[in-house]
Amino acid sequence: ILRGLNYSYSYLPLSWITGLIIFLISIVTAFMGYVLPWGQMSFWGATVITNLLYFIPGLVSWICGGYTISDPTLKRFFVLHFIFPFIALCIVFIHIFFLHLQGSSNPLGYDTALKIPFYPSLL
Question: Which of 10, 50, 70, 94 has the most CB within a 10 Å radius?
């Protein structure tokens, strides 16, 4: 992400947005996996993160299955931890498609159309 910001990658908005979505899904999946052992650290980690989400009305009760961290929360986190990698994989394919369609950022400013083909020239 920092390399993209440095090389003005934000001029390719579709690639930039899909990359950010992949990053956020990775963070959420890692958090859901952290909660799954259901120990003291996991419980209090889930409590702290869900308390950060209380500013959005109804979100915590929808995610946790109530207003407290309990068994429905663990089941929902397990399902989300299982589903999010597949969603991320689909978004990775979309991200690669956008990179292929738009091209990636070029830090040196070279024209990518000026290239020597590998097969007849170098082989």
Answer: 50
Question: Closest Cα partner for 65 from 78, 56, 51, 76?
Answer: 76
Please provide the DSSP assignment of 11-60 as one string.
GSHHHHHHHHHHHHHHHHHHHHHHHTT-SHHHHHHHHHHHHHTTTSTTHH
User: Phi/psi at 14 (nearest 5 deg)?
Assistant: -70, -40
pTM of structure? 0.79
Per domain, the residue ranges of the chain are 2-105
What is the per-residue pLDDT for 100?
83
Whose structure tokens read 């889930």?
A: 46
Q: pLDDT tens digit string along 38-94? A: 999 999 999 999 999 889 988 889 988 888 899 999 999 999 999 999 999 999 999
2-105: which CATH topology? Cytochrome Bc1 Complex; Chain C (1.20.810)
**Dihedral sign for Cα atoms in the order 107, 113, 114, 115:** positive
